[in-house]
Design brief:
The protein has 418 residues and is mainly α. Helices cover 76% and strands 0% of the residues. It folds into 2 domains: 63 residues, Orthogonal Bundle (Arc Repressor Mutant, subunit A), CATH 1.10.10; 278 residues, no CATH class. Helix 1 crosses helix 2, helix 6 runs antiparallel to helix 16 and helix 8 packs across helix 16. The chain is globular and about 90 Å long. It starts with a helix and ends in a 9-residue tail after the last helix. About 1% of the residues have low confidence.
Length: 418
């Protein structure tokens, strides 16, 4: 009887281990699929093919696509928390300079050995921003990550560890989204955060894209149809991601015949590229509307206040347009053909910040324009992914004031040397 009982226990243990292996294989396949095709392309069938599990097994462990995404988010969070905890346990001081080196290396690893997981995580964050029901979970996710970064900043003995941790998270996230969109090598992204590469190094004028070829003149009706197609593509980018943009889905969204998008755009990539141009033109116009009248006598407090105004409107009123833009950045990580136009748009943003910093009498030839953009985008993604509230916006104003003022004055921890 004892032998029978022991055999039963071993059998149950073996069955449990097989079950855990199958579940792990499925979730790793989910993460890889999110990186490769995004949320829009994620299906149980694709996961079954990639994991080697049966379709029945994927639906047994995860009833819906959102269940798979939620578990992938949890696995990625636990991996990040474990890495940050190990790093904190191994650190004894180092100050702001040591903390900066860690941030630079952490981001570089996200573009290198962790690139697949980074892309998956970015897809999950944008998906969370699209779904109000996911906001509480995303906020809790960010809070746990923030606490881990606080412990790390304390281990480095960085000044004001809570403030350093908050900006550290945002700068890292912003750097990763920019790095993916531009296709930066890990060492290049690390160098931007370490202050060894400037905006001019990343975007030499001679290397800038000439833009899309000029379109032939269209009749008013044709121009209106073409614009209708672009608007439909942007709505799909905002609501579902780049993987949802194809001729068929765009035609349905626009209420046009199936062949209409192909008539005006030679490929889905061309349509995405045109959408990127249009989104950037609109973003640029919005920023200029706020900033254009302020350059006469612009000072740091005014710049900070105007930036906070822009941030608030971008996180709320224009949130869907930013989701569409970031979806294109992630698709650019998969399709290098999209990168020249992403590069052109980002270069213009960096140079705009260089002009602002020059007006303020601050250093504008170093990494500051890059760092400000990393901070802004990372904060914007955090706000949208968690569902920005009025209380959040008040806190954001104070954080932007602290971070931007410190960057302008050259005393931010991310500018430390050593």
């Amino acid at each position: 009887m004892d032998d029978l009982a022991a055999k039963t226990v071993r059998g149950r243990r073996a069955k449990q281990e097989r079950s855990e292996r199958t579940r792990t294989a499925i979730i790793e396949a989910v993460i890889a699929a999110l990186a490769d095709v995004g949320v829009a392309g994620l299906t149980h069938r694709l996961v079954a093919e990639r994991s080697g599990a049966s379709l029945a097994a994927t639906t047994y462990y995860f009833e819906s696509k959102q269940d798979m995404i939620a578990e992938a988010a949890n696995v990625l969070l636990q991996a990040n928390l474990a890495e940050l905890s190990r790093a904190a346990d191994g650190v004894r001081g180092g100050g702001a300079a040591g903390f900066r080196r860690f941030v630079a290396q952490f981001a570089a690893d996200g573009m290198g050995e962790r690139r697949t997981r980074t892309l998956a995580w970015c897809e999950i964050m944008l998906d969370g921003a699209r779904r109000p029901d996911a906001h509480p979970l995303t906020r809790a996710w960010y809070e746990r990550l923030f606490q881990a970064w606080v412990q790390l900043a304390r281990a480095f003995e960085a000044p004001y560890p809570a403030l350093a941790a908050r900006s550290g998270v945002d700068i890292t996230v912003g750097a990763l989204f920019h790095g993916l969109g531009l296709g930066l090598a890990p060492e290049t992204l690390r160098a931007t955060l370490a202050g060894k590469i400037t905006a001019d190094d990343l975007f030499p004028l001679a290397d800038m894209a000439a833009g899309l070829a000029a379109e032939p003149a269209l009749t008013a009706r044709a121009a209106a149809t073409r614009e209708r197609i672009l608007e439909a593509a942007i709505r799909l980018l905002a609501s579902r991601g780049a993987g949802a943009v194809n001729y068929r889905s765009v035609a349905l969204e626009a209420g046009l015949t199936a062949g209409a998008p192909a008539y005006y755009f030679s490929s889905a990539k061309t349509l995405l590229a045109e959408a990127q141009v249009l989104l950037f033109q609109r973003s640029k116009a919005r920023s200029r509307k706020v900033m254009s009248n302020a350059f006469e006598g612009l000072d740091t407090p005014t710049m900070v206040e105007l930036t906070a105004v822009i941030f608030q409107s971008e996180a709320t009123e224009f949130g869907p347009l930013n989701l569409a833009t970031y979806a294109i950045w992630l698709q650019s990580a998969r399709e290098p053909e999209l990168r020249p136009l992403v590069q052109e748009a980002l270069a213009d943003l960096y140079r705009a910040w260089s002009r602002i910093l020059l007006t303020l009498g601050a250093a504008n030839s170093g990494p500051e324009p890059l760092l400000i953009q990393y901070l802004f985008v990372g904060g914007l993604i955090r706000a949208m992914a968690g569902g920005v509230t009025p209380n959040d916006l008040v806190k954001i104003r104070y954080r932007l004031k602290d971070d931007l003022t410190a960057l302008v004055e050259g005393r931010h921890w991310i500018q430390s040397r050593g």
